[in-house]
Amino acid sequence: MQAATPTALPPDIPLFPLPEVVLFPGARRPLLIYEPRYREMIADALKSDRIIGTVLLRPGFEANYEGRPPIYGIGCAGVIEDSEQLPDGRYAILLRGLTTFRIVSEDQRKPYRLARVEAIADVLKDNDRAPLSALRERLARLLDAVLPLGVDPPDPDLEDDEFVNITAQALPMPEAVRQELLERTSVLARAQALVERLSK
């Protein structure tokens, strides 16, 4: 399966609004899909490019959950790497984050939400690599101090950007804070924010 790049992200993708999940590029997340409209979304995605976009629901979504409750305007597109349809019709999937995106508009063609999106390329400039590497090392040291006994930090062989993104997804924190990290303009800014958060 060919991984999508920011430039290859389709202009229109299905949206999967979630109350407590923020996906990051390069990170993986297992999800259980049980609502009929989202089962249809997964079935359609599996027949095409396997790409869906996760977006965080805004506070107060409960009042209109069955409709189209308010969501944050920036999410993360992911590719379905693995899927299993259970006997009762639910899907168990493994989603890998590809790139952040900005929602441009939505339409009502399907029971689930579809959006026109723009990929947000997280380009790492050459002069950002050394500062990012230094921040990653600080982050790794801070994780050693804060992680509970028996919980392993991310794989030390990961590239710096993957290490930062997987840490951002895995660390316990309010989802609104995680959303703020996702919306950072670069992985370097995300790493800086994580270091500041863990240093408090």
Characterization of the model:
This protein has 200 residues and is of the alpha+beta class. The termini are far apart. The protein contains five helices and six strands; from the N terminus they run ββαββββαααα. Helix 2 runs parallel beside helix 3 and helix 3 crosses helix 5.
Entry keywords:
200 residues; alpha+beta; 5-stranded mixed barrel; 31% helix; disordered N terminus
Helix content: 25-40%
Give the DSSP E fraction (strand runs of 2 or more residues): 25-35%
Query: Which structural category fits the helices and strands?
Result: alpha+beta
Largest sheet: 5 strands, mixed, barrel
Question: How would you concisely characterize the structure shown here?
Answer:
With 200 residues, the chain is of the alpha+beta class.
Layout of secondary structure:
Layout: E1 12-18, E2 28-33, H1 36-47, E3 51-56, E4 74-85, E5 91-107, E6 113-120, H2 129-146, H3 160-170, H4 175-182, H5 187-199
Parallel strand pairs: 1-3
Antiparallel strand pairs: 1-6, 2-5, 3-4, 4-5, 5-6
Helix pairs in contact: 2-3, 2-5, 3-5
